[in-house]
Specification:
Elements: H1 2-12, H2 24-35, H3 37-40, H4 45-79, H5 86-93, H6 96-131, H7 139-155, H8 157-181, H9 193-196, H10 203-214, H11 234-260, H12 266-269, H13 277-284, H14 288-322, H15 341-357, H16 360-388, H17 405-445, H18 453-456
Helix pairs in contact: 2-8, 2-11, 2-14, 4-10, 4-11, 4-16, 4-17, 5-6, 5-16, 6-7, 6-14, 6-15, 6-16, 6-17, 7-14, 7-15, 8-11, 8-14, 10-17, 13-14, 14-15, 16-17
Protein name: Ethanolamine permease
Keywords: Membrane, Transmembrane, Transmembrane helix
Subcellular location: Membrane
Length: about 475
């Protein structure tokens, strides 16, 4: 009888932990891998909102927003080194209801981003086949891509993020090669900025509207926090991987805008049916080498992003199950591969459904809205963290400078971007807010009774200041 009672935890995986096998390059590969696809597609919808210069301004304003995100995350996550990222932060610094919502924000951000990635991957394969004279549907390739990446994530995090590092580095290299190929040292030889660029076609209101898609250049860099429980040295790997990833993305975003807007009219770049602007930019050069290279780079970036999104969404969902915010069935670790396998398998069909049936711009908007809600929480989290545990009271892996300036800046930029989203997708914004309100009511009046409050606090910290 005692043997039977002892058996279930081992078989379900609830008594097992995730492996600490990752280093800074894996953190970089996870963060940049998720985001780099934004340089190959999606950012261009901002050009349609505010013109070429409007999109550039939005790009750098969004870069400032994400620099604040990276600074705040680097400090708190290197101190709260647990799977779940911002969710784990919220349950330690603010409370259960905030933590529940932040967990949902992250899961939907990465699941919707995953859906957009695999949709793009499937459609790229269709485009490539059409240019070879074959007319094939894109849907089977979308499903196949997600199935292979799900299997890879199921088998282990080290192999998953090692692959992500390799293909992300390869995709980033294609952007650099394209930049060299258009001869930036001789601006009139290939690039035509003087002929193609115009003033702000819709004024400064268009610039604000462009912020909606300006954040697509960087959306997901905060996903590095999801690896906190699996890195060997959180205090070193997380800040180094996150901040170097942010620098990489700023460089890639600047190159992307410069090359695309120097070869394509802004009206074409911002067209709703424009899928892959960097690939089309390479085609305009007339170089078969650059065309093939950017086709491969775009495909690799979509695959790398989808791969990282599966990793991050599953760990957020797994963490909520482990803490009983969701059914504990999701909090299991595979006995052999040490991965949150049930969460991985549960979220995959959701991504498939959105990828197959929802237009790309709408999926991107779902992801952006959930991400924005998460970023709005971060200033509150930072203020609470520094107030409850001032510098010197606990050991931090990293201390970000200039507090509270980044927190105030992030809050202001988030509010501005919400207004930008409302200008173009007001109904989706209101629908998403209604969804999160209903989910919060469900958690407060039903699910909270199952939560074990004492078991959530895994950090050996002193009592907060004032308690």
């Amino acid at each position: 009888m005692s043997d039977i009672a002892a058996t279930p935890p081992a078989s379900t995986g609830h008594d097992m932990n995730l492996l600490k096998v990752l280093g800074p390059i894996h953190v970089w590969g996870l963060g940049v891998g998720i985001v780099l696809v934004g340089e190959f597609m999606g950012w261009n919808y901002g050009v349609g909102k505010g013109g070429a210069f409007g999109a550039l301004i939005a790009c750098f304003i969004s870069g400032l927003l994400y620099t604040c995100v990276a600074m705040i995350d680097s400090e708190i996550t290197s101190t709260v080194a647990a799977a779940g990222g911002q969710y784990a932060q919220a349950k330690h610094t603010i409370g259960p209801l905030m933590a529940f919502n932040v967990g949902l924000f992250m899961v939907l951000t990465y699941t919707m981003l995953n859906a957009s990635d695999i949709q793009v991957a499937g459609q790229l394969v269709q485009i490539g086949a059409q240019q070879l004279g074959h007319d094939i549907p894109w849907q089977p390739f979308t499903v196949l891509c997600l199935a292979v990446l799900t299997w890879l994530n199921y088998r282990g995090v080290f192999a998953t993020l090692t692959v992500n590092f390799i293909i992300t580095a390869a995709a980033f290299t294609t952007i650099i090669i394209l930049f060299i190929g258009v001869q930036p040292w001789n601006p009139t030889a290939v690039l035509l900025h003087k002929d193609l660029l115009t003033n702000l076609p819709y004024g400064w209101l268009g610039v604000i509207a462009a912020l909606h898609f300006g954040i697509w250049y960087y959306l997901g860099i905060e996903g590095t926090c999801q690896a906190a429980e699996e890195v060997r040295s959180p205090g070193r790997a997380l800040p180094l991987g996150t901040m170097s990833g942010m620098i990489t993305l700023l460089i890639a975003a600047a190159i992307t805008w410069y090359v695309s807007c120097g070869l394509l009219p802004w009206e074409y770049i911002g067209w709703d049916n424009e899928l892959a602007p960097l690939y089309d930019t390479a085609r305009v050069t007339g170089s078969n080498f650059l065309t093939v290279l950017l086709f491969i780079g775009t495909l690799l970036s979509a695959i790398a992003s989808a791969n990282g999104c599966i990793n991050d969404s599953a760990r957020a969902w797994f963490s909520m199950g482990r803490d009983r915010y969701l059914p504990t069935w999701f909090g299991a670790v595979h006995p052999k591969y040490r991965t949150p396998f049930r969460s991985i398998l549960f979220l995959t069909p959701i991504a498939v459904i959105f990828a197959l049936y929802i237009p790309l711009a709408e999926i991107i908007t779902f992801s952006i809205l959930s991400g924005l809600l998460n970023y709005t929480f971060m200033p509150l989290n930072m203020w609470s963290f520094r107030r409850k545990w001032p510098l010197g009271t606990i050991r931090r892996g990293f201390e970000h400078p200039f507090h509270p300036v980044p927190a105030f800046t992030l809050m202001f930029l988030c509010i501005t971007t919400f207004f930008a989203v409302y200008l173009g997708y007001g109904r989706q914004l209101l629908a998403m807010m209604a969804f999160y309100i209903i989910a919060s009511v469900w958690f407060a009046f039903y699910r909270y009774r199952y939560v074990r409050r004492g078991a959530q606090f895994t950090m050996a910290w002193p009592k907060p200041a004032g308690y």
